[in-house]
Request: fold
Amino acid sequence: MKKKSLFLQLTLAASLLFSTVTYAAEVTSTRDIPVGSSGQMEMVGTIEPTIYSVTMPTFVPFNISNSLSTQNKVISPRINVKNNSNIPVQVDVAYTNVNLDKMPNVDWSNTGTVNANQIAIGFKQEDVEGEMPVDLSHARWLHANEAQDLNVLILDANKEGAMYVVGTLGQDVSESATFNVTPTFVVTKTSITQ
Reply:
């Protein structure tokens, strides 16, 4: 009985060794496997580790006033955004928390068109280097307290871009009050290049 058991163990070990050698030999070859038979196929996946790294300010103060003669009623600093990644990325706003608690009777506009008691704020890419936008054409408007998929900037690999806060307000909105706008930015890989 011991001899039979030992013989089976050696046979099993030899067959495992043979199948391993056969498998290694077949990795680079191709062949058809007939229906009803069995065979082995190696599938190889590649992981491409990519780190998205974008640098931008975490706090941007701005002033909004009807006294400005331009269509854009916001004065904001230039928002420099740098893509430190080796791939093109897009910067999107996924959500914007808007708090108008200190401004009674004022509403938010998601479209950039305001009535007498509304405010609208958005982003606009820099048209001329170092110059604040005067008009609101091509502005990307922030939606208050709801999910949105708003692309604000596309940056090629290792490139810089800039944008400004833009906006408008109705004539009945007090210019001495304050409010908070907190957008949530999301950076993703893109195939679009600038």
In short: The chain is about 15% helix and 30% strand. The two ends are 77 Å apart (CA to CA). The first strand starts at residue 54 and ends at 55. The mean pLDDT is 83.
